User: What shape does this take?
Amino acid sequence: MSSLPMGSTPCEKCRGRGKKDDETPCPSCEGTGLVAVKPKIERRRLPRYWTSLPITVRNRLEQDLEGHSIAISEGGISVALTEPITVGSVVLLQFVVPTHPTKLRLWAVVRHLIGLQHGLEFVSVTEGERLSLRQFCNGLALQPASGVQAGPG
Assistant: This one.
């Protein structure tokens, strides 16, 4: 079996033959037998934005771990830390965004862990904090859907 060109799949209309049953070129694939694969669009409730902020994460043992953010949304943040924190753990985050008058202190739950990258979902956000996060995110570059994931949200 020959390998397919990257980003393509056999045409469903002609079953990859490139021709209709009457031997005329297939209009769907223009006679090639191949059609482009459409990238999977990731549907999230909130868009992710690239950012690198210093962040302190207090784990359940009340140890502070220093790290930095990778991406953020109104509902969560992706953080690189020096030690892993168990998925499902609730942690206290402390970080500064220029759109909020004081250091944010938000509770979050660890939703995923890949290496030392943690996806954290905010679980206690006041309306004022959410507004500050939204304003901060609106000033950042949107993260592509296939990029690093922030916590759910």
Remarks:
- The chain has one helix and nine strands.
